[in-house]
Amino acid sequence: MREDIQSLLRAGRHCVMATAADNKPYCSLMAYVVNDDYTRIFMGTRRNTRKYQNLAENPLVSLLMDSRDQHQPQALTIEGVIEEIDQKPEKDQIREALVSRHPELKSLLDSPDAAIISVRVKSVVFLNGLTDVFRQQIE
Predict the structure, then answer these.
(1) Eight-state DSSP code of residue 103
(2) pLDDT tens string 36-92
(3) Residue-wise pLDDT tens digits, 108-124
(4) Phi-psi region of 126 (alpha: psi -120 to 50; beta: other; left: phi over 0)
(5) 32: exposed, middle or buried (C-beta count within 10 Å: 0-12, 13-18, 19+)?
(6) In a 3-state reduction of DSSP, which class is residue 67?
(7) Residue 136 pairs with which residues in a beta bridge?
(8) Residue 138 in 3-state DSSP?
(9) How far is Cα 47 from Cα 45, in angstroms, rounded to an integer?
(10) Are 109 and 63 in contact (CB under 8 A)?
(11) How far apart are CA 54 and CA 48, in angstroms?
């Protein structure tokens, strides 16, 4: 299962991030990159967004990655905790990785309002097909 999860994370470019504040859920489409050991997922956003405000109030998130267009659909739900990356050189390295994989993010990440965020993976639920479910607590 681990290889299938890693393959889905590597192949994917976008995910849906669910945030919540004041008992109001909110979903955002996000471009991402993942670190080498698949424990952290990195994204960029602007600080003047509803998602960023939600994250400032509640750092718990859920991510959904999927392969719905394939014959054998797969879905990965990740529960995690958001941390903003503000220390150089880590911030610069992550920014470069995001722009390399998603050139369309360059103008967003060049903005003074931009934030680089990391999701520290706490648990995963992997659905392979319609009935094969794998769950794992990471932390």
Answers:
(1) G
(2) 999 999 999 999 999 999 999 999 999 999 987 777 789 999 999 999 999 989 999
(3) 999 999 999 999 999 99
(4) beta
(5) buried
(6) coil
(7) 124
(8) coil
(9) 6
(10) no
(11) 11
